[in-house]
């Protein structure tokens, strides 16, 4: 691999880590109703060929700040959708009227908010470690190729600086996502 390939690979992997963390945060409950909370829910409907994503069998909308409504395409699947929501352990109880499922998001207690922030902070640290591991592997690849790449020492030093800059940039993005979500969680 040449220097550009090493840098591109490192940046691509760091971007994926940030995207994974952002995706995780979208599914974290914050006291506000959020369609993203049910994105990962899967429903077992034999007529549809087994386990399918919720979005392929229903439309989810935000009714207000504390309620989501889920309207199945086929009202006969409402029980299976409820089972899928319960199996997802969202901490929410689905209520249905035979046509629509409602998910009410009760206010979170201060203690629960702090627990959630601790959990997303732990996940933040895991993603930072992933980015640091990518940095370590990129620097190792640069050292292994030292002299082989046919470039001068200055270019190699510059590439090492670029890897460190990428690390700072993407760790900063992780922190920004964490701060934004923490603020959202603590807002009553």
What would you say about this model in short?
The chain is of the alpha+beta class and 188 residues long.
Q: How would the blueprint of this fold be written?
A:
Elements: H1 3-26, E1 42-45, E2 50-53, E3 58-64, E4 67-72, H2 78-87, E5 94-96, E6 101-104, H3 110-144, H4 153-186
Antiparallel strand pairs: 1-2, 3-4, 4-6, 5-6
Helix pairs in contact: 1-3, 1-4, 3-4
CATH architecture of the largest domain: Orthogonal Bundle
Number of strands: 6
Computed CA radius of gyration, to the nearest angstrom:
22 Å
Supply the number of helical segments.
4
Helix content: 40-55%
Helix/strand/pairing category: alpha+beta
Largest β-sheet summary: 4 strands, antiparallel
Distance between the termini: 51 Å
Estimate nothing, just give the exact number of structural domains.
2
| Spatial arrangement of strands, main beta sheet | 3-4-6-5
What overall form do the CA principal axes indicate?
elongated
CATH topology of the largest domain: Topoisomerase I, Chain A, domain 4
The CATH homologous superfamily of the largest domain corresponds to: Ribosome-recycling factor
CATH class group of the largest domain: Mainly Alpha
Enumerate the spans where pLDDT stays under 50 for 5 or more consecutive residues: none
Beta-strand percentage?
A: 5-15%
Element pattern in H and E: HEEEEHEEHH
Mean pLDDT score, rounded?
Answer: 88
